[in-house]
Structure to design on (126 residues):
């Protein structure tokens, strides 16, 4: 059974930083999503198992960095220059490996991810 546990959320002022972590064992492509109440869960970033190729939503490019430490079975999301609109519950998710082209086309499809963490709240005050 794959269990994902997020940590690192909290309250921060605009312009500040937070680093999220997710314990994620196994050979999976990992991703971060976020969700605001009343809105759909949306893609934030992803990182592949072997190559470490990264993908980002346009809204976070240049501010967020996803990384993983396979030896520690942990994926991270470094969030800098946080904005109030980044406020959300952040979830890590895992999916089985696919071809690069397949993943690129489906990276933001919720149903493609078989495993989800419980979520961690990130609140950015203005």
């Amino acid at each position: 059974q794959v269990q994902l546990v997020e940590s690192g959320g909290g309250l921060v002022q605009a312009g500040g930083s937070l680093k999220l972590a997710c314990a994620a064992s196994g050979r999976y492509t990992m991703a971060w999503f976020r969700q605001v109440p009343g809105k759909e869960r949306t893609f934030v970033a992803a990182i592949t198992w072997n190559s470490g190729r990264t993908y980002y939503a346009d809204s976070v490019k240049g501010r967020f960095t996803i990384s993983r430490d396979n030896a520690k079975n942990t994926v991270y999301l470094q969030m800098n220059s946080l904005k109030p609109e980044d406020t959300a519950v952040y979830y890590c998710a895992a999916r089985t490996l696919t071809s690069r082209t397949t993943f690129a086309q489906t990276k933001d499809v919720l149903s493609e991810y078989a495993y989800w963490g419980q979520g961690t709240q990130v609140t950015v005050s203005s």
Observations:
- The first strand starts at residue 5 and ends at 7.
